[in-house]
Amino acid sequence: MDLADHAERPANRGPRFFGLSGGNLVSPAAVVCGLLIWEVAARNFIDPFFLPSVSAIFAGAVELHQQGLLLKHVSISLTRILVGWALGSLVAIPIGLMVGSFMTAKRIIDPYIHFLRFIPAIALVTLFIVWFGVGELSKILLVMYATSFIVMINTATGVVTIHQNKKLAAQTFGASVMQIFWRVTVPAAMPSIYVGMRLALASSFLVIVAVEMLAAESGLGFLIWTSKLYFKIDWMFVGIFLLGFFGLLTDYAWKMVGKHAIGRYVRASAKY
Amino acid sequence: MTIAMESIAFAYDAPIGRPKPLILSDIDLEIQDGEYLVLVGPSGCGKSTLLRLIAGFDQATSGSLKIDGAPVKGPGRDRGMVFQDLESSLYEWLTVGENVEFGLRVSGVPRAEREVRREEALRMVNLLNHVRKYPDELSGGMKQRVQIARMLAMRPSIMLMDEPFASLDAQTRHMLQNQMVSIWTEIGGTAVYVTHDIREALNLGQRIVLMSAGPAAGIKHIYDVPMPYPRRQSDPIYIELLERISGDIEEEVIKVWI
Ligand SMILES: Nc1ncnc2c1ncn2[C@@H]1O[C@H](COP(=O)(O)OP(=O)(O)OP(=O)(O)O)[C@@H](O)[C@H]1O
Ligand SMILES: [Mg+2]
Known about the structure:
The structure holds 2 protein chains of 2 kinds. By secondary structure, chain A is an all-alpha fold. Chain A is about 75% helix and about 0% strand. A two-stranded antiparallel ribbon of chain A has the order 1-2. Mean pLDDT of chain A is about 90; it is low at about 1-15. Chain B is of the alpha/beta class. Helices cover about 35% and strands about 20% of the residues of chain B. Chain B has a 6-stranded mixed sheet, with helices on both faces. In chain B, strand 7 (about 160), helix 5 and strand 8 form a beta-alpha-beta unit. In chain B, helix 2 (about 95-105) packs parallel to helix 4 (about 140-155). Chain B is globular and about 50 Å long. At the A-B interface, helix 7 and helix 8 of A face strand 6 and helix 2 of B. The structure holds adenosine-5'-triphosphate and magnesium ion. Magnesium ion (MG) binds next to helix 1 of chain B. Magnesium ion binds near residues 48 and 84 of chain B.
């Protein structure tokens, strides 16, 4: 028997109940406990206008849904986030690869990257609306702007930290510059690209909410902002909760992409 | 292929304003076609550096390095390398089998032949049972054997090996030394092999080059090893050489530590 096979088995996960192992139950149990404490505390000791109970928030969500607003705000925000994030990464990855690989590209592009990345997307909201109108374009461009620098920097860092021996080995195999780029540089930079995109995803949530609060008629940011005007504190909490929830969900989805679709490239980084 | 080095000196690049100490100086060495040459010397003297020069990763600061009469300008398919560092040169996104095939792929070797050569190379280093593992699932010695296998698959005329058996147990190491000799006899290339183990040097080398302690290391002595393979440790020549080389290395090591 091969000893190394043992290493692939996960460590002892404790007792199993109904097919679920003990380890898998800890997180759901912690969440349920937290919600219960919240509910009890909110009902008995806290002013509902300060912090509504879980059930009140749930009722608020149902109400929003009945008015047809819930799905509308969620889907518009998620669309802006995902489209902006995907397009932003699509632009950023090639630039990051170039900057990391070629000194000349680095010299030309670097000043722009390091100047622009310190200008927060939020500072550009009004300008982008003047330039690109009040429609979806300006919002998606702002998300692209916010995500692309994170992805760019991570990609370029990934490229420059590739161990020289990988490229030297490829040279002893007679690999051309292009072959080294596609078969060594790109796959070796994948973990950094992957992590960069994961961080950028969180930033795109940040940006879109700010944009929707400042200049939109829809989206979760808009919902949170306007519920204050109607004294609908429970709606505000619905919006806040949904941001966390969809953040968690998209992050989890990205983790699954890492584990299954591009698993071989991000073996280590997809573990957390 | 013959490797000819004439009064080679080498210093690594340093930031402007910092001194560039000579690592190697005055290296004169001619390695014959098909020869098995072993490099020994105290740690840090420049064995790996010399190997990098032959591989073409770095250029000599002065002097000339020629292979079959042509100056070495960079790395090439004729020279394979087993890096001293266990894993930095392996492709962690490729399995053992794919790592071994990597060189064949970029060289455009057709699939059927790739498979044959991969199997052959993996058999030589006894890794056939681990083809599907990724480098992070291997032990140090296994990683080193993957490096050897992917070099062998390319069938280079010159094999440059930097302490490839350093992280193996004595038994496995001895087996692989024998294996190494038979591979080398079979494919008939030139081998330049770095080790710090004098017995290993005696088991493998036709000539053993002892380098002097750095900085500006040179060649202290070259020993001929007039014994047939497999080498017997009880052979009087073996015993005599072992003693002489040990004494000479000690002399060099002491210089560094005083
Ligand atoms: N990339 C580098 N830049 C600058 N100096 C280096 C570099 N690599 C090695 N050196 C220096 O060159 C000298 C020789 O190093 P080298 O790695 O060739 O020694 P070695 O004989 O292979 O040692 P060991 O037996 O420990 O592997 C050392 O003084 C080391 O500090
Ligand atoms: Mg070395």
